[in-house]
Amino acid sequence: MSDEKEKHRRDAQEPRFICSAEQAYECMKCANCCSDFWEISVDKESSERIQGYELSRIRASLRYYEPFKKSAVNPERTIIRQAQGRCCFLTKQHLCGLHYFFGADAKPKTCRQFPFIFVKTPEGVYVSASFACLSVQRNEGTPLPQLEPAIRELYKEAPEVTTIPEKISLDGKITLSWENYVYLERGLLELLSIETVSLPTLLIAGNIYLDLLAEFIKQATGKGEYSQDEIVRSYLNIMRKQRFGRVIEIAQRSLNAPLLQRVYVGILVSFRNTITKKRSRLGTTAYLLWQYLSNLFGLGKYQIYPIEEKFRPADFRPDKLKMDDPFFRYSLLHYVKQLIFRKQGLDKMSWQKAYRYILLYFALIRWYATARAVSRGEASVDRSGLLKAIGFVEQYYVRHPAMESFFTIFPQVEALLDNFMDKKHYAPSIVYPPVKE
Ligand code: SF4
Ligand code: SF4
What we know:
By secondary structure, the protein is an alpha+beta fold.
């Protein structure tokens, strides 16, 4: 067998693992991941195995009903039933009943994989972790590379592995080789790491970095003299020589439209609310239309489940979230960098669009953190409130399986968001506060 074939065979069996060195984890047994609006999906093998256990030992109520049901949003999926927002296997002592009575391997494969996220790419499996986990939010515990032996074992049975294509679409028209994508991603991360510039400006500059890249490739390719490798290297060399000064300068001059953010984030939040408080298809359409009109004309208030209170636009004043606090900056930037590390969205959309979604998640964190502080009567968001908001957004939007199915059922909402993302002022409008400073 040739060396190349042997390497290919080895990679298929024993892929290279690229574990995020920036991320740590150690389970604190808080049971946060076993509660709260998740749809914990169960594969067929796990559900058949679990139904063979003596489940009455866990909770008396289990004798009377099935622990699994079909997802209301996607009937293809089997999910674990919840009782009062908690997994039906969770004991009163906040322990997994399956684990406690029948051993760690008794849990469904999804739960065994949690919080690890596996993303298969042409160069190996990227491993990061879900921010729905408290330990991951706090970045406490053992750095992921040191957990690699256990991670390798989990990967063999992992039910959820995202596969990234060998070539990455930059903007829906230009395709980048994997190597060029990785090279340019490094540039984006260098830009986001510049310490002397505010975080919102850096995030807007990241969007401009991708827009200018698409324009640069289009123009240079038109001349027909250079390969994509040469064009990409030349682009990043220019950016580095300028210390990304050009994109930062454009970002600093950009104008934002707070109303745009209130309308579109309001729509996304309303859309998410319909997953929590289920309605018929017609009822959902009518609710979304009403929310769109009331956000547009400033009528009514915002509802942001799971927070029960309703909020007025004025509640989202910028002084509620102190973006220049070093802890806030570190935590938000860490989350953004982890989303980029895990190639969030690149399995189904262009890089430009995936990055714009990351900016949308950033805006949602601000909304959740502020709404939570207002609902608790706090003058401003505190550290734990910020981490909690990152967890909410990860759990309810970024990693919630039902979100994807909803976009399939209501493609109009996705088309509306796409339209917003293509607007010239999208990045500043979504990154700056939804109320003028
Ligand atoms: S099965 Fe166990 S680990 Fe999985 S969600 Fe339920 S209590 Fe948590
Ligand atoms: S949220 Fe994280 S720390 Fe808490 S029980 Fe789940 S895995 Fe453990």
